[in-house]
Structures are given as C-alpha cells and as structure tokens.
Design goal:
Blueprint: E1 2-3, E2 8-10, E3 14-16, E4 19-22, E5 27-31, E6 34-36, E7 39-42, E8 46-50, E9 56-59, E10 62-64, E11 71-74, E12 82-85, E13 89-96, E14 100-102, E15 107-114, E16 118-119, E17 125-129, E18 133-141, E19 144-148, E20 152-161, E21 166-169, E22 174-179, E23 186-196, E24 199-204, E25 213-222, E26 225-228, E27 236-239, E28 243-245, E29 248-251, E30 256-259, E31 264-267, E32 272-275, E33 278-281, E34 285-288, E35 291-293
Parallel strand pairs: 1-4, 2-5, 3-6, 4-7, 5-8, 6-9, 7-10, 8-11, 9-12, 11-13, 12-14, 13-15, 14-16, 15-17, 15-18, 17-19, 18-20, 19-21, 20-22, 20-23, 21-23, 22-24, 23-25, 24-26, 25-27, 26-29, 27-30, 28-31, 29-32, 30-33, 31-34, 32-35
C-alpha cells in the first residue's frame, strides 16, 4: 500500500503482513482493531493510531523512518483503546492525546507532546525521549521505565508513576515544573520512583499563595540539582517522598522548600543544601551527612 496522493483511513479494522509506505505530508489512519505484522515505512508522514474503546491497533512487524522525520499520533477512542507496539519504535515525533500505549517493544522518540492517555508496557520495556517533552493532563506511566534526555515541561496536571516504574531526568536534561493554574495542585505522584540526575526546576506562573508543587512519589532520588527558579515565587516546593540524595537543593531568598511525609530521607556525602530562604522539615526522618549553607 502506498499512501502518496491522498490520506488513507482504514476504519473497519483488519491486518497487514505486507508493506505500507507513507509519503511526506500524508497520513495513514488505523482505526478500531488492526494488526500490522509487516513493514510500515514512514517518510515524513504521520501514522495515526485511533483504536476505539476496548479495541487495539498492534504494530508488530517493522516500523522505520528512513528520513528520521516521521510522526506517530496516538489518539484512541478512550484510555481503553490500546496502541500496542510489539516491536522497537524510533520516531522523530510522538503525540498522545488519548488511549493507552502498550506492548513489548522499546520506544525512542524525539519530541513528545502528551496531552492525555496512559503509558504502559511489558516488563523491562523502556521509553526514551531525546527531545523536549511537553506534558499535561492527569495520566499514568506503568511497566515501562522512562529516560528523559532532552528536557521535560510539565505544563499543568499530574504525572502518576506506578510501582516498579522509574522516570529518570538524565544528566544534562532539565525537568521544568510549570504551574499556571489557580487553586490546583500540580504533582508528580504514585508508588514508583522519580530520579533526577539533571536539573529539576520549579517555575510558577500564577500568584495563588495556596498553590504548591508536590513531589509525592514513593521514592525521589536527586543526584543533580533541584531549584526554585523565580525569586518572587512565594509558594513552596513540597517533597513528600523517601529518597537518597547526593545532589544539590537550592533555595533562594523568599522561597520555601518543604520536606514532609512519614518517610526516610538520606542526604548523603556529596549532597548540599544552599538555603537563602526557608527550609521546612515537616515530617519523616532526615539524615544529613552532606553540606549545608544558609541562615
């Protein structure tokens, strides 16, 4: 099948063990239940995966982007519509607005624009994002470890990390916690692990003094730098997670970083807290063997 003059929409389900070629600027829509065990070659086009509720679109053969500039758009009729990748996927652009990403294949994406839907996988599967991630909505990741290499902007909502799953902001990457809502908690939560080896930065854009950014995963480990960006940000960054830290926590004048929860945190040798504002220890067991500077 060559998708080269017009877009093609396959709405009745089906399967393919042959070759499908998507030409530049064209779109292939796979809807309801569809199983591809052959080759999908995406030449700067867009592959749309739109399974209806309780249906699955399965990519189980070979997926390639010869010019490294294709797009995969995961929509789905609801979060119960599954886009299943049972082969390794490497795409320049990944979009997700609904549905659930599943499958036994590892996924590598350049940019990732996520506005809805869940991310799942098989045991040992990975998601690697090399470009900027823009993330919003209230969504979960489970059974797939996520390595963030090119930056992450949380622009509102909640990222839930399930037990046994680790999301890592890697060295050289910046995870921006951007809050713009009034009276809404923007959080990263869940029974999994958030690890920061790069820079994690709180950037509030609203003026609601009752709003806080909450890190509430079961474990949060910092080997990089955690900071509050704005000198006029009077809301607290709240960390309620257990963790082992060898990195830096920087608190500017007029800012507050608050550690709470009935958990154990170890600030080991190599860690540092630079405090020109307010450091609040509101719960748990906190052991310091690193360095501390401040009032």
């Amino acid at each position: 099948i060559n998708v080269n003059n017009r877009n093609l929409s396959i709405t009745g389900g089906g399967s393919s063990d042959g070759t499908i070629i998507i030409s530049s600027g064209k779109s292939l829509f796979l809807q309801n239940s569809f199983n591809s065990s052959g080759l999908i070659e995406n030449n700067a086009g867009t592959l749309h995966l739109n399974p209806a509720s309780s249906n699955s679109v399965v990519i189980g053969g070979v997926y390639s982007e010869p010019s490294s500039d294709g797009t995969i758009n995961v929509a789905g009729g609801s979060t119960s519509g599954d886009s299943v990748f049972n082969t390794s996927i490497n795409t320049a652009n990944l979009l997700q607005s609904n549905g659930t990403i599943k499958g036994s294949g590892d996924i590598t994406a350049g940019t990732f624009n996520h506005t809805g839907g869940h991310i799942d996988g098989g045991v040992g599967t990975t998601l690697t994002t090399t470009g900027l991630v823009t993330y919003s909505g209230v969504n979960n990741i489970s059974n797939r470890n996520w390595s963030i290499l090119g930056g992450f902007d949380l622009v509102g909502g909640q990222l839930g990390i399930a037990a046994g799953t680790t999301v890592t902001n890697e060295l050289g990457s910046t995870l921006n916690l951007n809050a713009s809502y009034l009276g809404v908690l923007d959080t990263i939560t869940g029974a999994g692990t958030l690890a920061n080896a790069g820079t994690m930065r709180q950037n509030f854009t609203s003026t609601n003094t009752g709003e806080s950014m909450v890190i509430g995963t079961a474990v949060f480990d910092n080997s990089g730098t955690v900071e509050i960006a704005s000198a006029t940000d009077i809301r607290a960054m709240v960390i309620n997670s257990a963790g082992t830290h060898t990195g830096a926590f920087n608190i500017g004048a007029g800012q507050e970083m608050r550690f709470g929860g009935s958990v154990t945190r170890d600030f080991n040798v190599g860690s540092s807290i630079s405090n020109s504002g307010t450091l609040s220890l509101n719960g748990g067991t906190n052991t310091f063997t690193g360095t501390f500077t401040g009032p």
